[in-house]
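pasting for ref
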Amino acid sequence: MTTTTAVLPEVEVYKGHFDRWIYKTLPTNMRVAKSTDFVDARGVEIAGVHFLVHSYYSNHYEHHISAPGVVDKFRPWIEDNRCYVLA
């Protein structure tokens, strides 16, 4: 297992499937995300927002970077408060 501080420091992470960083625990500098965290004042989705998704299966947190369509793709996690952005 390869570990590093990756994008978000302070917790142990490793590379998972699809070359994504997997965090075993949630970093302390994260907060629950809302759909508004991924759009600007005009309602246009923002590309490049780093966020973690709490897996329903493994109980780990998977790192993602926002791109067009992110709100629709991750809506179940956002609505279940299982999506986190930097505080």
